[in-house]
C-alpha cells in the first residue's frame, strides 16, 4: 500500500494522545497526581488528538462531507472510529475540565473510566480499520490492534514522562518505567507481527487473479501506460532498499534508543522529550512500513506496462 | 474514421458529441465499434487540430514548423498560380500522393484531369503485394476485395495479420467462427491480437512464408489432397504450356491458332490434353477432361506440359524438411497442417442447394464448398519477396478448391476482375501533355511489357518509377520512393508535391532521418541554387503532424465528422460477399475553425484550373461543391456511372447505373447512409465462372467483359516479362542492367527467395528480424493526439524473446540499442514469450517528434516512444528501392538488427530525438487536465 | 432476486480496448459525472476509467498463450467494498445487485478501494469521489433507448461479443447458461466475495487426422496417373496360394 502521511500522522498522533490520556488516568487511579497536571496533560492529549484529526482530514477528497461518515457504524469500522473519536475527545476534554475547574475525584474517575473505555474502543476501531480487510494479510491479525494499542500506550506514557518532568517530576520516573515496559511489550508484539508477516504466503496469485492455472504467468500490459489510481494508491513506489531502511530505522527508534534514554533520564525533561521525539519518529517509520509492507492483491493486476 | 469504414452513429447533446457508437444496421460492423472509433470525441477536441491555412514563414527552415496563418483565398491563389504554370508547361512536375484516405476516386480523377502521371495512394508501401499477388492469380484479393467466409468455414488459417482494414467485421466473424467450434490457426512470428485467440500458433521466421506455402503445396500434391475437379475446370492447371526452351513462345500457353479466342484481350482458345480422347482439345470443350500431369507433343511438334505438372515439378524439391530449415516451423507441423487443410477441404464439403450456370453453359444443381478459409495481410505483403509468396498462397487456396466458394475465400464486388484487370496507364511519355488530361489512368494493370509506362529508352515516366522495368507491376505506385526520387532528380525533378493524409516525414517513410534531410535539402549549384530540391510542398492534414512541419503550405482539413464522404463503388466500396454496397458520411458537427474538406479544395482548384471534367462547355465551373459533384459527376457523359451506385436515375429508382439524381444524398441519409444490392443467391458464388453473375456484372457495367476468369496457377503474364528479359519477346525489352532482375523474379510459378535486403546484410552481425505490428487501439501515427487512446499506448517497447534477451545481455524494462546497418535506435525492451526468438518487434508509429501532435515536449511518445523506421532503408545498394522487384511493395519487414544493452551512464531517453516543434498557429492550448462532458467542456 | 453481471469470454477477446473507450465516452458524459484525465497531452497521461484491458502471457515459447483480460467492477454478491464505506455512499442495489457509489455522499476516503481485492475502483482525481463501473445503470433501464440497446456501452461495442450481460441469478439467462456450459469462473474465489461477473476460459479446437484419411480410394493422384495400379501381370499372392 502507499503510505499516506495523513493516515500515518493520524494514527501516531491519536495513538500518543490516547496513551497519554491513559497515563494521566493511571496516575489518577494510583498515584493521585495533582489536578492541574491532569488538566495540562489532558490538554496536550487533546492537542495530539486534534492534530491527528486534522491530519486525517487531508485524507479525504471531500472533508466538508466528513460528517456523513458516521452513518454506517453498523458495518464500518471507519464509521465507528468517526463516532468514537469525537466522543473520546469530548470525554478527555471533560476529564481535563473537571480537573481544572472543580475537581471531584469520584466524578473524575467516572469520567476517566468512561474515557478509558472510549479510548480502547478507539484503538480497536483504528486497528480494525486495517485488521478487518481479509485480503491485506499483513494487517489481518489481532496483532494489528495489539500493536496500535501497545505503541499508542508506549508513546503516550513516554510523553507523559516528559510532561511530568516539567509539571510533576515525582511521576516522571514511574511513567518512564511504565513506558519502558509498554514499549518493550509493543516491541515484542511488533516483532511478532514482523515474524508472522515474513512467513505469510499470499493467498492470491496471478493464477487466481485471472483464473488460469499455470505456474508461469507474466503480465505484459495493464492497459494504462501513464499509471492509474491503482498504481498510485496500492504501492509505495519505493525501491526495496528504502523499505528495508525504514524497517531498520523503526526497529531502532521505536524502542531501543528511547529505552536507553528512558532508563537513564531520571527527571530530565530534555532526555525524556528526546525519548518521545525519537520514539515518535520511529512510529512514523513504523507506520510507514506498516503500509508499505502490506501487499494488496490488486497489485497482481498492475505489475507491468507495455 | 479509419479504412475499416464502419457505420457509426454520432449522438449529440446541445450540439456536442455525447457518444459515438456503431450503427446496428450497418452490414459491416453491425453495431460494434473499435477503441479508436469510440474515442472520436477526443479527436475533435484535440489541441493538435489545425484550424487555419498556414504558409511557411519567409526565411524559416522547412521542418522548423514556423508558420504564418493565411486566408483560404491566399492559399487558393498560391496554388492556382503555381499549378496553372506547371500544367501549362509540364504537368508531370506536379505530384499528388495520398495516404490512408478513402477518396482515391476523386484524388485520382483530379490528378488525371491535371494531366500528371504522378499520382498514387499509399497502397505501394502498404500491401500492394497482397492485392497484386492475388489479383494476378485469382482475380480478387483480401480486405476490401474479398475475404474468408467464416460463417461456413471449419478451418481458418491466418497468416501475418495483426489488425487489418476489415477489422471489426473480421473480429465479429472470428468470434462467431470460434464459438461454432471452428479451428483457427495463426501463422505469425508474434502472438498478439487475433493470434492470441488462435487454437494453434505457428511461429514463423519473418519473410519465409513463401517456403512454408510451397512446402504445403508440395504435400498437397504429393498426398493427392488437391481438389482435382476444381483445379481441372477452374484453374489453368490443365492448360498446356509450351515447354520448349528454343521456342520464342516458350512458357506461354499453347493455343488453338485457328480457334476462336472469343476475346483477344483475354483469349479462350488455350488447349487441354483430353484424358478421354488422349489428344489436344480447346480447353473446356464439353465432355473432355484435361490431364494435369504428363508431357505431350502437339501435332506441329511443339512440346507441351499441363501447367499443373510444372507446378508439381516446381514444388517437388520443396519438402517439409526443406521448409523447416528456412521457416523454423518443424517438418512434422508442416505435414500435419497440410493434411489438416487437405482433409478438411475434402471431407467436410459444404453443399448448398443453389443452382447456377457456369460460363461454359453447364448447369449445376448445387454450389459446393471446401470449408478451409485463409486470410493474410502485411506479414506476407511487406517483404520484398511478398508477391511470389502471395501467389503461392493464392495457389494453395486454389488447390484446396476454395475460391469464391462457401466456407472458403469469397469475392466482394466489383471483384472478381479479369486477370489482369483492364484498367491501363498510358504506355509512354506522349500520354502526358500540357493542359491535357492524362491519356489513361495513373495506375493500371499491365498484362505485358507493352503496357509499361516508359519512354523509348525504357526509362520510367512516373516519378516513383512505377510501371517501369524496375517495378513493372507496381499497380499501386511507390509512394515510399517519391521523396527520395524527387530529391535525387531521378528520373526528374518535381515542382510541386502535394501530400494528403500521410505522415511522410515520419512513419510512412523508410529511414525517416534521411527523408527528413531530403525534404529540407537545397540545390547547391546552377540556376536553381538555394532552391529546395523539392521546390514546393503542400500538405493537407487535419492535425499538426511531423509532416506538416515541412510544408510550404498547410491546408487544414476537416475530420470525418465534419464533412461529406463517400465510400464509392469507384474506389473501394464497402461491398460484402453477397453483393455491391457503398456508403456515405454526412457531417454531424460544423468544421472547426476555418477547416475545409480537402474534397472542396480539389473541386475548387479543378474549377479554377478549368479541368474538362469539372467545367461546363463554356469553360465555367461545373460543380458548386463536393456534394454537388458527387451527385452529378459521371465517369463519361451519360455513362450513368457515378461515385454512388444507389438511388440513381432522376427519381432514385435505379441502382448501379442511371442518370444523376439530385436527391441522392437525402435518399442515402434516409437509408442509413448505405446502399446495398444483394445479389440473387445463384450469383453469389463461383463468380469467376458464373454466367449469370457475369451477365449481371456486364449489364450493370461493373465489368466490361463477361469471360470466365480462370485461376492463374501458372502466370502467363509474368512469363511475358520474363521472355522480354530473355530477349525472346517480340515487343519491349528491359534495359540490360535490369534484364537479369526481371528474368529472375518474373517466374510464372511461385518460388521462394530470401528478401532482397538479406542479400545486402551480414546476418551474422545482424541476426534478428525487426518488425512492427499495428496496435488495435491506435491508427498509425495519428492517434497520439487522442487523450484517451494515448493512455493505452503512451510509448512503446521492443519485445524480445527471453532467450534472445539473455544471449544479448538485455534485461526486461531496460534501455537498449537496436541497430541495423542503416541506423540505430535507443529504446526500452520488454521480454515476451509470445515472439519467435529470431524476431524482435514493436507497436507501429507510437514514437513521436517532440511537440508534434499537440503533445508536450516531455510527452512519453517523444521521450520513451520510438519509431522503428529509423532502422529501415528505402534504398538498397545499387540505388534500387528496398521493394519487391515485381510490384514495388516496400519491404518494411525485411530489416535485420542486433540488440545490446545501453551503457550504464547513458541517457535514459530515446534516440534519435529531434528538435521540439512549436505549436502551429491555430492549434489549441494544452489543458493540464480535462473532464469532457458533452454539452459543456471543463478543463483548465 | 436479480443479479445483473457481465460474463467475459476470454476465448474470443482479442484485446481491442473497444470496451475501454466506449465505457469512457459513455460515462464521462453520463449521469454520474465526468471521468477526468490528467496530463492528457503531457508526460504519463492518466485518467479515470471504469474498465481496463490487460495482457498476460501464460507459458513459455513456443507454448505461449497470450491472454487479453478485461477487468471492471465485478459487482460482487458479497462486496467487501460496501460494508466498509463509512458514509453509505457505496451500496449494493437490492433490486438488481449492482454495486454503486453515490457521488453526493462519498467523502473520497479511498477505504472502499482498499477493500476491493480486484482494484476495480478508482478515485476521480478532480471530482474527488470514488468511481467504478455502474453496469451502465443509466443505459440499461433507459426507456428512451430502443430495447436492443439497453445494454452496457462496453457490451454494445465489443466486436467479438466477448461481453455478455444479464442476470446471473436467472438460470435460463444467456449469462447463466454460458457460465454453466462453458465453465465460467470467478476471480480470486479465495476471498469469498462471490463476484457476479464471471469469466469464460479459453477453449481449444483440436484436429486429429487419422492416417486412413490420407489414403482414400478417391485420391485424385489415381485419376492423374500418379498412383498407377500395378500391371495385372506383376506377381501377386493370388498366384501362389490356394486354400
Ligand atoms: N488499429 C489499427 N488498424 C489498422 C491500422 C492501424 O494503424 N491501426 N492500419 C491499417 C492499415 S494501413 C493496414 S495496411 C492494415 C495492416 O494490417 P496488418 O497486415 O494486419 O498489419 P500489420 O500490423 O502490419 O501486421 C502484420 C502482421 O504480420 C506479422 N508478420 C510480420 N512479418 C511476417 C512474416 O514474414 N510472416 C508472417 N506470417 N507474419 C509476419 C506481424 O507480426 C503482424 O502480426 O491495418 C489497417 N488497420
Ligand atoms: N515501420 C513501419 N512503418 C510503416 C508501416 C509498418 O507496418 N511499419 N506501415 C505502413 C503502412 S501499411 C501505411 S498505410 C503507412 C501509414 O502511414 P500514413 O499514411 O503516413 O498514416 P498516418 O501516420 O496515419 O498519417 C496520416 C495522416 O493523416 C492525417 N489525418 C487524419 N485524419 C485526417 C483527415 O480527416 N484529413 C486529412 N487531410 N488528414 C487526416 C493524420 O493526422 C496523419 O498526419 O505507414 C507505413 N509505415
Ligand atoms: S475500425 Fe475504423 S472505421 Fe471501424 S469504428 Fe474503428 S476507427 Fe471507425
Ligand atoms: S469488484 Fe471490488 S468494487 Fe466491485 S463489488 Fe467487488 S469488491 Fe466491490
Ligand atoms: S471513498 Fe467514498 S465510497 Fe469509498 S468508502 Fe469512502 S466514502 Fe465510501
Ligand atoms: S458496464 Fe458500463 S460502466 Fe461498466 S465497464 Fe461496461 S461500459 Fe463501463
Ligand atoms: S471490446 Fe471485447 S474483444 Fe475488445 S477488449 Fe473488450 S472484451 Fe475484448
Ligand atoms: Mo497500410
Summarize the structure.
The complex is a heterotrimer of chains A (306), B (940) and C (243). Chain B has 940 residues and is of the alpha/beta class. Helices cover 24% and strands 16% of the residues of chain B.
Descriptive overview:
The complex is a heterotrimer of chains A (306), B (940) and C (243). By secondary structure, chain A is mostly helical. Chain A has a single domain, classed as Up-down Bundle (Formate dehydrogenase/DMSO reductase fold). Helices cover 70% and strands 2% of the residues of chain A. The radius of gyration of chain A is 21 Å and the shape is globular. The two termini of chain A are 23 Å apart. The model of chain A has no long low-confidence stretch (mean pLDDT 94). A 7-stranded mixed beta sheet of chain B has the order 4-3-24-23-22-5-6, covered by helices on one side. Chain B has a 6-stranded mixed beta barrel with strand order 28-32-29-31-30-35. Chain B has a 4-stranded parallel beta sheet with strand order 10-9-8-20. In chain B, a hairpin with a 4-residue loop joins strand 12 and strand 13 (279-282). Chain B starts with 7 loop residues before the first strand and ends with a strand. Chain B is an alpha/beta fold. In chain B, helix 3 runs parallel beside helix 17 (598-608), helix 5 (128-138) packs across helix 14 and helix 8 runs antiparallel to helix 11. Chain B contains 26 helices and 37 strands. Among the domains of chain B are: 1-47, Phosphorylase Kinase, domain 1 (2-Layer Sandwich), CATH 3.30.200.210; 228-315 and 712-745, no CATH class; 763-901, Barwin-like endoglucanases (Beta Barrel). With 243 residues, chain C is an alpha+beta fold. Chain C has a single domain, classed as Alpha-Beta Plaits, CATH 3.30.70. Helices cover 15% and strands 18% of the residues of chain C. Chain C has helices at 18-28, 111-114, 137-140, 153-157, 174-181, 220-223; strands at 4-9, 37-38, 46-47, 51-58, 65-72, 90-92, 99-101, 122-123, 130-131, 163-167, 198-200. A 3-stranded mixed beta sheet of chain C has the order 10-1-11, covered by helices on one side. Chain C has a two-stranded antiparallel ribbon with strand order 2-3. A two-stranded antiparallel ribbon of chain C has the order 4-5. In chain C, strand 2 and strand 3 (46-47) form a beta hairpin. The longest helix of chain C is centred in the first third of the chain and has 11 residues, at 18-28. The radius of gyration of chain C is 28 Å and the shape is elongated. Chains in contact: A-B, A-C, B-C. Chains B and C meet through strand 2, helix 6, helix 7, helix 12 and helix 24 of B and helix 1, strand 2, strand 3, strand 5 and helix 4 of C. The complex binds ligand MGD (2 copies), iron/sulfur cluster (5 copies) and molybdenum atom. The site of molybdenum atom has 2 residues of chain B, from loops.
Amino acid at each position: 500500500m502507499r503510505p499516506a502521511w495523513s493516515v500515518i500522522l493520524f494514527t501516531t498522533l491519536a495513538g500518543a494522545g490516547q496513551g497519554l490520556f491513559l497515563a494521566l488516568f493511571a496516575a489518577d487511579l494510583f498515584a493521585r497526581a495533582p489536578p492541574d497536571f491532569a488538566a495540562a496533560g489532558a490538554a496536550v492529549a487533546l492537542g495530539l488528538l486534534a492534530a491527528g484529526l486534522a491530519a486525517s482530514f487531508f485524507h479525504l477528497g471531500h472533508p466538508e462531507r466528513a460528517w456523513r461518515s458516521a452513518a454506517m457504524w453498523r458495518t464500518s469500522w471507519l464509521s465507528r472510529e468517526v463516532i468514537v473519536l469525537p466522543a473520546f475527545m469530548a470525554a478527555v476534554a471533560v476529564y481535563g475540565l473537571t480537573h481544572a475547574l472543580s475537581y471531584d475525584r469520584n466524578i473524575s474517575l467516572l469520567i476517566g473510566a468512561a474515557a478509558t473505555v472510549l479510548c480502547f474502543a478507539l484503538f480497536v476501531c483504528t486497528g480494525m480499520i486495517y485488521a478487518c480487510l481479509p485480503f491485506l494479510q499483513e494487517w489481518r491479525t489481532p496483532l494489528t490492534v495489539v500493536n496500535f494499542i501497545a505503541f499508542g500506550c508506549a508513546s503516550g506514557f513516554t510523553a507523559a514522562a516528559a510532561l511530568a518532568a516539567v509539571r510533576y517530576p515525582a511521576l516522571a520516573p514511574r511513567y518512564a518505567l511504565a513506558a519502558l515496559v509498554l514499549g518493550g511489550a509493543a516491541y515484542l508484539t511488533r516483532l511478532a507481527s514482523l515474524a508472522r508477516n515474513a512467513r505469510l504466503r499470499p493467498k492470491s496469485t496471478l493464477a487466481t487473479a485471472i483464473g488460469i492455472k499455470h505456474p508461469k504467468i507474466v503480465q505484459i500490459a495493464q492497459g494504462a501506460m501513464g499509471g492509474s489510481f491503482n498504481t498510485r494508491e496500492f504501492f509505495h513506489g519505493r525501491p526495496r532498499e528504502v523499505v528495508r531502511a525504514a524497517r531498520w530505522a523503526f526497529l531502532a527508534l521505536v524502542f531501543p534508543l528511547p529505552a536507553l534514554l528512558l532508563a537513564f533520564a531520571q527527571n530530565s525533561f530534555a532526555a525524556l522529550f528526546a525519548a518521545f521525539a525519537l520514539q515518535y519518529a520511529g512510529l512514523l517509520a513504523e507506520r510507514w512500513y506498516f503500509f508499505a509492507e502490506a501487499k494488496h492483491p490488486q497489485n497482481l493486476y498492475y505489475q507491468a506496462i507495455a | 474514421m479509419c479504412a475499416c469504414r464502419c457505420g457509426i452513429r454520432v449522438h449529440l447533446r446541445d450540439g456536442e458529441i455525447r457518444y459515438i457508437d456503431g450503427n446496428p444496421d450497418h452490414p459491416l460492423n453491425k453495431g460494434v465499434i473499435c477503441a479508436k472509433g469510440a474515442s472520436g470525441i477526443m479527436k475533435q477536441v484535440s489541441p493538435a487540430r489545425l484550424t487555419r491555412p498556414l504558409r511557411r514563414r519567409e526565411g524559416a527552415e522547412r521542418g522548423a514548423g514556423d508558420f504564418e496563418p493565411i486566408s483560404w483565398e491566399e492559399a487558393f491563389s498560391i496554388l492556382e498560380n503555381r499549378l496553372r504554370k506547371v500544367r501549362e508547361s509540364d504537368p508531370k512536375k506536379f505530384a499528388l500522393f495520398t495516404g490512408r484516405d478513402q477518396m482515391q476516386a476523386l484524388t485520382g480523377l483530379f490528378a488525371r484531369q491535371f494531366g500528371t502521371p504522378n499520382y498514387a495512394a499509399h497502397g505501394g508501401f502498404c500491401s500492394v503485394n497482397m492485392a497484386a499477388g492475388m489479383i494476378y492469380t485469382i482475380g480478387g484479393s483480401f480486405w476490401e476485395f474479398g475475404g474468408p467466409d467464416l460463417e461456413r468455414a471449419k478451418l481458418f488459417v491466418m497468416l501475418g495479420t495483426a489488425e487489418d482494414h476489415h477489422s471489426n467485421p473480421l473480429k465479429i466473424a472470428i468470434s462467431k467462427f470460434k464459438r461454432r467450434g471452428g479451428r483457427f490457426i495463426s501463422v505469425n512470428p508474434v502472438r498478439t491480437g487475433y493470434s492470441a485467440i488462435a487454437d494453434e500458433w505457428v511461429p514463423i521466421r519473418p519473410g519465409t512464408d513463401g517456403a512454408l506455402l510451397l512446402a504445403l503445396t508440395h504435400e498437397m500434391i504429393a498426398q493427392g489432397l488437391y481438389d482435382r475437379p476444381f483445379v481441372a475446370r477452374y484453374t489453368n492447371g490443365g492448360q498446356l504450356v509450351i515447354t520448349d526452351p528454343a521456342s520464342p513462345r516458350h512458357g506461354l500457353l499453347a493455343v488453338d491458332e485457328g480457334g476462336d479466342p472469343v476475346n483477344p484481350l483475354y483469349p479462350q482458345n488455350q488447349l487441354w490434353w483430353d484424358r478421354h480422347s488422349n489428344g489436344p482439345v480447346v480447353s473446356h470443350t464439353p465432355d473432355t477432361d484435361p490431364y494435369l500431369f504428363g508431357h505431350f507433343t502437339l501435332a506441329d511438334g511443339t512440346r507441351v506440359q499441363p501447367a499443373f505438372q510444372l507446378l508439381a515439378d516446381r514444388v517437388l524439391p520443396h519438402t517439409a524438411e526443406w521448409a523447416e530449415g528456412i521457416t523454423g516451423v518443424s517438418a512434422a507441423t508442416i505435414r500435419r497442417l497440410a493434411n489438416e487443410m487437405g482433409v478438411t477441404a475434402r471431407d467436410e464439403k459444404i453443399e448448398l442447394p443453389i443452382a447456377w450456370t457456369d460460363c461454359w453453359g453447364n448447369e449445376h444443381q448445387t454450389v459446393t464448398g471446401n470449408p478451409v478459409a485463409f486470410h493474410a495481410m502485411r506479414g506476407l505483403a511487406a517483404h520484398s519477396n511478398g508477391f511470389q509468396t502471395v501467389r503461392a498462397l493464392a495457389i494453395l487456396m486454389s488447390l484446396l478448391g476454395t475460391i469464391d466458394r462457401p466456407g472458403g475465400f469469397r469475392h466482394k464486388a466489383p471483384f472478381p476482375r479479369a486477370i489482369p484487370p483492364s484498367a491501363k496507364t498510358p504506355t509512354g511519355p506522349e500520354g502526358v501533355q500540357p493542359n491535357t488530361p492524362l491519356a489513361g489512368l495513373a495506375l493500371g494493370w499491365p498484362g505485358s511489357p507493352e503496357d509499361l509506362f516508359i519512354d523509348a529508352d525504357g526509362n520510367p515516366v512516373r516519378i516513383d518509377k512505377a510501371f517501369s522495368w524496375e517495378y513493372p507491376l507496381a499497380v499501386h505506385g511507390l509512394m515510399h520512393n517519391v521523396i527520395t526520387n524527387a530529391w535525387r532528380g531521378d528520373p526528374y525533378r518535381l515542382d510541386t508535391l502535394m501530400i494528403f493524409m500521410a505522415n511522410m516525414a515520419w512513419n510512412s517513410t523508410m529511414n525517416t532521418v534521411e527523408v527528413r534531410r531530403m525534404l529540407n535539402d537545397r540545390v547547391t549549384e546552377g540556376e536553381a541554387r538555394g532552391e529546395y530540391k523539392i521546390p514546393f510542398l503542400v500538405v493537407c492534414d487535419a492535425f499538426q503532424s511531423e509532416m506538416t512541419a515541412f510544408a510550404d503550405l498547410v491546408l487544414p482539413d476537416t475530420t470525418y465528422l465534419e464533412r461529406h464522404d463517400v465510400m464509392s463503388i469507384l474506389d473501394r466500396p464497402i461491398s460484402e460477399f453477397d453483393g455491391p454496397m457503398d456508403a456515405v458520411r454526412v457531417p454531424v458537427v460544423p468544421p472547426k475553425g476555418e477547416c475545409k474538406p480537402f474534397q472542396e479544395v480539389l473541386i475548387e482548384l479543378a474549377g479554377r484550373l478549368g479541368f474538362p471534367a469539372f467545367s461546363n462547355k463554356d469553360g465555367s465551373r461545373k460543380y458548386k461543391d463536393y456534394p454537388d459533384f458527387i451527385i452529378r459527376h459521371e465517369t463519361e457523359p451519360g455513362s450513368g456511372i457515378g461515385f454512388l451506385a444507389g438511388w440513381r436515375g432522376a427519381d432514385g429508382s435505379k441502382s448501379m447505373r442511371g442518370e444523376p439524381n439530385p436527391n441522392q444524398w437525402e435518399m442515402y441519409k434516409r437509408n442509413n447512409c448505405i446502399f446495398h444490392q444483394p445479389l440473387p443467391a445463384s450469383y453469389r458464388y463461383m463468380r469467376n465462372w458464373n454466367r449469370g453473375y457475369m451477365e449481371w456484372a456486364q449489364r450493370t457495367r461493373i465489368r466490361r467483359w463477361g469471360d470466365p476468369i480462370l485461376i492463374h496457377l501458372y502466370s502467363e503474364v509474368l512469363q511475358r516479362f520474363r521472355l522480354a528479359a530473355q530477349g525472346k519477346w517480340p515487343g519491349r525489352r528491359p534495359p540490360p542492367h535490369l534484364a537479369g532482375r526481371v528474368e529472375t523474379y518474373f517466374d510464372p510459378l511461385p518460388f521462394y527467395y530470401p528478401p532482397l535486403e538479406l542479400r545486402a546484410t551480414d546476418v551474422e552481425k545482424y541476426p534478428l528480424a525487426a518488425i512492427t505490428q499495428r496496435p488495435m487501439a491506435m491508427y498509425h501515427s495519428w492517434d497520439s493526439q487522442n487523450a484517451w487512446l494515448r493512455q493505452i499506448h503512451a510509448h512503446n517497447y521492443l519485445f524480445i524473446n527471453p532467450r534472445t534477451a539473455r544471449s544479448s545481455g538485455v534485461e526486461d524494462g531496460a534501455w537498449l540499442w537496436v541497430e541495423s546497418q542503416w541506423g540505430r535506435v535507443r529504446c526500452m525492451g520488454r521480454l515476451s514469450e509470445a515472439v519467435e526468438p529470431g524476431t524482435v518487434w514493436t507497436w507501429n508509429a507510437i514514437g513521436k517528434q517532440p511537440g508534434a501532435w499537440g503533445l508536450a515536449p516531455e510527452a512519453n511518445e517523444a521521450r520513451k516512444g520510438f519509431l522503428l523506421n529509423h532502422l529501415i532503408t528505402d534504398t538498397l545498394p545499387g540505388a534500387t528501392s528496398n521493394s519487391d522487384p515485381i510490384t514495388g511493395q516496400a519491404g518494411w519487414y525485411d530489416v535485420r538488427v542486433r540488440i545490446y544493452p545501453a551503457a550504464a551512464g547513458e541517457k535514459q531517453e530515446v534516440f534519435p530525438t529531434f528538435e521540439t516543434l512549436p505549436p502551429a498557429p491555430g492549434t489549441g492550448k494544452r489543458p493540464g487536465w480535462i473532464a469532457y462532458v458533452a454539452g459543456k467542456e471543463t478543463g483548465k | 432476486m436479480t443479479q445483473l453481471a457481465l460474463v467475459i469470454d476470454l476465448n474470443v477477446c482479442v484485446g481491442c480496448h473497444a470496451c475501454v473507450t466506449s465505457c469512457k465516452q459513455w460515462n464521462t458524459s453520463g449521469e454520474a459525472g465526468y471521468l477526468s484525465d490528467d496530463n492528457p497531452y503531457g508526460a504519463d497521461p492518466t485518467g479515470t476509467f471504469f474498465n481496463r484491458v490487460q495482457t498476460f502471457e501464460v507459458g513459455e515459447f513456443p507454448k505461449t498463450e497470450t491472454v487479453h483480460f478485461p477487468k471492471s467492477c465485478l459487482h460482487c454478491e458479497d462486496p467487501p467494498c460496501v460494508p466498509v464505506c463509512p458514509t453509505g455512499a457505496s451500496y449494493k442495489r437490492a433490486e438488481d445487485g449492482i454495486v454503486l457509489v453515490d457521488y453526493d455522499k462519498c467523502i473520497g476516503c479511498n477505504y472502499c478501494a482498499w477493500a476491493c481485492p480486484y482494484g476495480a475502483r478508482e478515485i476521480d482525481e478532480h471530482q474527488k469521489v470514488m468511481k467504478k463501473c455502474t453496469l451502465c445503470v443509466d443505459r440499461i433501464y433507459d426507456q428512451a433507448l430502443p430495447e436492443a440497446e439497453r445494454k452496457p456501452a462496453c457490451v454494445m461495442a465489443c466486436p467479438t461479443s466477448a461481453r455478455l450481460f444479464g442476470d446471473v441469478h436467472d438460470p435460463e439467462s444467456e449469462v447463466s447458461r454460458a457460465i454453466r456450459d462453458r465453465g465460467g469462473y470467478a476471480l480470486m474465489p479465495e476471498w469469498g466475495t462471490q463476484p457476479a461477473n464471471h469469466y469464460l476460459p479459453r477453449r481449444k479446437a483440436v484436429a486429429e487426422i487419422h492416417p486412413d484419411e490420407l489414403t482414400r480410394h478417391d485420391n485424385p493422384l489415381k485419376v492423374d496417373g500418379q498412383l498407377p495400379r500395378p500391371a495385372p501381370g506383376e506377381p501377386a499372392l493370388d498366384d501362389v496360394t490356394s486354400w
